[in-house]
Amino acid sequence: MTTPEQAVTAPALLTVGQAAERLGTGPRFVRRLIAERRIEYHKLGRYVHISEPVLAEFIKNGRVPPVTSPRRRVA
Description:
Shape: elongated
Strand order of the largest sheet: 1-3-2
Order of helices and strands: EHHEEH
Strand content: 5-15%
């Protein structure tokens, strides 16, 4: 028997609609990410879910740092 300290909790799973809402896009974009295997997902029967940590990692990996260049002085 496992104690509460030993129990492993699974990360929350988001539906396609919930993932799209978090990304600020439509569900079609999330389904395209899944179809192109650009994001990890869980298939439970006919339902597709994305875990919160996977979605957060996808967002983090899509970050583009700003370009920093020395400012030129206009004379």
